Description:
A: 164 residues, 6 helices, B: 190 residues
Amino acid sequence: MRSTVVYCHPCEGSLAAATRDVVLDVLAGSPVDLIDLSSPNRDTPSLADTASLDGSDLLVLVYPTWWSGPPGALQEWFDEVWPGDARFDSIRSIVVCTSHGSSKLVNALEGESGRLMARRYLRRRAGRRCRVSWVALYGVDRCGPDRRQRHLERVRRAISAARP
Amino acid sequence: MDDGTSRTNAVVVSDRRDPAASLATAVLVERLSRRHVVTVIDLAGFGVAMSADERVAYETDEPIVDPRVRASAEAVDRAEVLAFVTAVHSYGLSAPVKGWLDRVLVPGVGFEIDDAGRMRPGLRHVRRLVTVSVDDRGRLVRLRDSDGGRRVIGRALRLGCGWWTRSSWIRIGSDDSADEISRAITRAVR
């Protein structure tokens, strides 16, 4: 089983970085391509990213939700690597690990654009019967270390369950 | 005689890489100029990604560190109309527009955080949101995939504005003629 992990957050020490580490820990021992969109050495989305997605069974997205959707850098990656006419039929499972500054209610009012992107746009352009898991921590700015730790445990379980 | 002092401010945030988007920007600016003093923010060369320095500053009382971001934030602070020109390349807003939202509409500009840590609207002075989206998807695909960009502007950003803020969404195609684009924008921005 091959996995692709797409990570997007500018700061080490963030919850997203901790989430990425948990994901990589669970996937250790199997082939994993990490696409770090925040790396200073990275220029633009590349053909290697497309090749990575092409052979992957599992896609994991790790990012903070800003203004109801993925950050601009991840949006750029989708625009370049996964436009509307692209399909990645090998992908059988997508796990989205994200955090929101506001509550679940506010996010529902805002339309949860990021969630719909995963559940509708990406799923329809992945393999047949692709499963999508959404692991989100709401109200991240007001939650303490206990909730963050529980979130990381949920991430660990979701990635373990997504491994075929 | 109108010397411009009685007119309110409008900001047009434009990702005009697509020719149709460029044309739409020109039409939109012309329409808005009749009643507003218009500031155009051209996103060419505006970085889509928030830097580590910006993310660290985000948590402080001085969340803006980039001069270009500061100029945008100052324009937004004065704006009564906030308009966007974007295009659908995958799902949602184009990356430059999304990056602009992430970097410019930070605490103190796009929203406030109260003493209890809850977010409060920061764009109450904005009375009108206008978006022109270059979108070649058919109606069925738009319904099936949902319209992510429209949700971000029409719901998430709209929640950051005042109660009476109106939001208009104008969809054009990349092959639309100049007349078609002009008519579509004129219908919404009179």
